[in-house]
Amino acid sequence: MSTEMQVFLLPDLGEGLTEAELVNWLVAVGDEIRVDQPIAEVETAKSMVEVPSPYAGIVAVLHGEAGQTLDVGKPLISVAPVGASVAVKPEPEPAEEKVPAAPAVAVAAETYRTEEKAGSGNVLIGYGTSGGGEARRTRPRKMSGGSAVAVTSEPDFAQLSLSRTRIPGKLSAVISPLVRKMARDHGVSLDAVPGSGESGLILRRDIEAAIGGATRETAPVEVPAVTQSSSGVQPSTGVQDARTGLTVASRTPVRGIRKAVAANMTRSRSEIPEATVWVDVDATALLEMRAELKKRDPHGAPGLLAFIARFVTAGLKKFPELNTRFVTAEDTAGGVMQEIIAFDGINLGFAAQTDRGLVVPSVRNAHLLNARELDTEIRRLTAVARDGKATPTELASGTFTLNNYGVFGVDGSAAIINYPEVAMLGVGRIIDKPWVVDGQLAVRKVTELTLAFDHRVCDGETAAGFLRYVADAIENPGTVLADL
């Protein structure tokens, strides 16, 4: 083991990400940690992850605080060798009245540890080698040379400084920084929150209850709807907007997934000369085929999106120009070099709406999967994305995106291409429409397909050929699937 202090720099947790927000520390100064043990929870622009330590030893310095945005490549944690002297900085003395040590303080301390382990309430991604042991405090012990390890032992909670507020008739305290941050982010005054813990300790559930009560009380007021989240919506301060003359209802920091979406869409619009083609499609035969499969196997029939995904991968094999990437770089002579990079395979992304925003997980090597296998993988990725467990690789490796916005009840969309891909296929809702079949007017199940594509990688003929192939596959699914 190294005898020198080792500094772990925040790694790039995705494709070229430059920063991450520190959500919560999973260790403290003085903890003994092992290699690959999760040390912090961070939110990147793509996902929530647990960061593992590449070093074993004693935590010496934590470079950052919860809620702070850290740059990739900057120090995250310093680790000293086992046996080194590590001093734990005491908490600053609070301005409020101190409370004498009592048995209830020990109970409060245990509650604090429980609250901290519970984290922010978001489900985070496992990152690195699995194996969940908790960080453990090390007590002074003798070394072979007879010297005692000076690493601070478990803190004396009898001396723990508590941030306290007074509620008439009882003592109330908040000792978890996560609880304080939650209250601050949602504009909840701790003076008005009765603590349900021992000796009036305010727990996370008390803040959540207060947030729910505030929402119910303000529900009748007609103000613009604002989603509150762990990113922190700052409540109204009565400031008047200079341009409109209206009172500012709230200010929401743009970060995490929303920040990534904003940057990605802006870059797509500014760099990609996109064009759009669309076509109405009779999906009656596809719906009838799936209904028949569902009769035979009620639980194993693939969903409609899986069939369309199968048609898309087959179409991309025939029109590979839409499964590429356009790259601009500087050549050795200092000039500009442009390339179209083709891929030996298809990673099919699909748009999934989650509580944290729109994400695009991708089915890797989708061209190798049949409709049933695609259905299984789409369902799995949708579940992990909504639970916040999708890995950066699953969220950032797509080569083409399929967007089923029909689930939101709309027919079409002028989609923005998911940069750095070069095309996106959108599927609208399937509805009854009058349709001419064999010269006769009939009511059919019709949907609209919309293809947005980068005009630098192909012309309209290629885009139209791909779109027509997928449309024909939907209208004659039995014939196409038999050929796949």
Automatic annotation (TrEMBL):
EC number(s) per entry: 2.3.1.-
InterPro entries assigned to the protein according to its UniProt record, in alphabetical order: 2-oxoacid_DH_actylTfrase, 2-oxoacid_DH_E2_comp, Biotin_lipoyl, CAT-like_dom_sf, E3-bd_dom_sf, PSBD, Single_hybrid_motif
Lipoyl-binding domain boundaries: 5-80
Keyword Transferase among UniProt keywords: yes
Protein name as catalogued: Dihydrolipoamide acetyltransferase component of pyruvate dehydrogenase complex
SUPFAM superfamilies from the UniProt entry: CoA-dependent acyltransferases, Peripheral subunit-binding domain of 2-oxo acid dehydrogenase complex, Single hybrid motif
Annotated Peripheral subunit-binding (PSBD) domain residues: 174-211
Gene3D superfamilies cross-referenced by the UniProt entry: 2.40.50.100, Chloramphenicol acetyltransferase-like domain (3.30.559.10), E3-binding domain (4.10.320.10)
GO molecular function term, any single one: lipoic acid binding
Pfam families: 2-oxoacid_dh, Biotin_lipoyl, E3_binding
CC annotations in GO: cytoplasm
Keywords (A to Z) from UniProt: Acyltransferase, Lipoyl, Pyruvate, Transferase
CC cofactor: (R)-lipoate
Family of the protein in this entry: Belongs to the 2-oxoacid dehydrogenase family.
